Here is the input.
Amino acid sequence: MGSSPIKHVIFINKENATHDLLLGDITQTRKGVPVNGDPNYSLGFAASPNHHELALTFAFSDNFYLEPSVSSDGHRWLTNTYTTEFEQTHWPASYGGKRNDAGDDPEVFGPYPGRLGFTDANASPDPQDYNQHGGIYLHLLRNGKTFVNFGNGYEFAEVDESNATEPTGIRQHVNVPMESVVRDNSDQVFPEFNTHIPDGPLSEDPTRFNRFGRFKQVFEANYVDWQAGLCKLPNYVDLYYPNDHGGGPTDIHPEGPEWSFVRFVQDNDEALGLTVDLISHSPCWKDTVIFAVEDDPQNGFDHVDGTRSLFLAVSPWVKHEYVSKKHLSLASIFKTVDEILGLPPLNQYDAAASDLRDLFTNNPDFTPYNFAPIGFATSANAVWKQMTQSLDFSRPDANEVQLRRAIALSEGIPHRKPGKN
Here is the structure.
């Protein structure tokens, strides 16, 4: 791609949605170009107005697919690490509603100190699970690039995972070593997966800790000089907003109001929209691209394929009101990151993938994005409350099949026969 005017990549990763679940109601762009969506499987505009506005204003794809199947392998692919034989043979043993493994069941865990991880995390895998050349973080470091990680799948041994622990609530896997490149470049206050912590600010509790609030705090303190008009962002920013996974009705507010699945998606939409608004009104906007994806497609149905998922590209340097029809995947994103930052390929997947060059333009539009207001859902219906009573939301994908069914039935989405999605 030659020398790129883009100096900063913000990679926003979220939890468990298909393309149709979030954007299936978009059947054409504002320029009238057909989009392959099915509204029958969509939560609609009201559930994610910022996702919709970003897709219709900037660039998105209706032909983007995820390599991973679940969060366990998904969070490895999110760091450009293909899954090893160790991971591929281990994660199925802790899925299918059988996740009481040694890392989570005290009867198995026993009296030993710490926590015994089983499937572990993308940024701190078991030594047996290391890729030959590591992941995106080590790749950036080796090639003289800078990065910061906000919450993408790491665990710090010194924090508590109790419900509503603030500010972190990060899970402990203290038996798994963490590479220094990850620890030294991760924000150790930003929460990992915890459905008791909101992604975005709460109007009813404006002082409540939230993921976007922490990102904004660090961004304004460390990465931008408003007075001088300078951007000091690292080359690569990994930013995790997981609440579109859904959570228990009383996870955010134990005393109410209860949250529906849509309310969790709206919380996630708020964080995404506020992040783009913040960046686009800052000195960083002129040379930044933001990519937004899911880690896996489990929570939704899709009329094209069960692995088709969300992909948004937001920047002055992407084509506006554009839908890509090119076959794309996570590897396409990392190939493009390589090309933007002048890196060699990390592995065979980013080397061989198709890139995102059709989304970009040499004629930038620096118009900033303004946050789209959200009409937040105010209650959870009886179906959602009843079907989530026995679901475990303490970790992602604990009851993935039951959760997908609860989403479909509570939101009136048709669900296909087993094996179709």
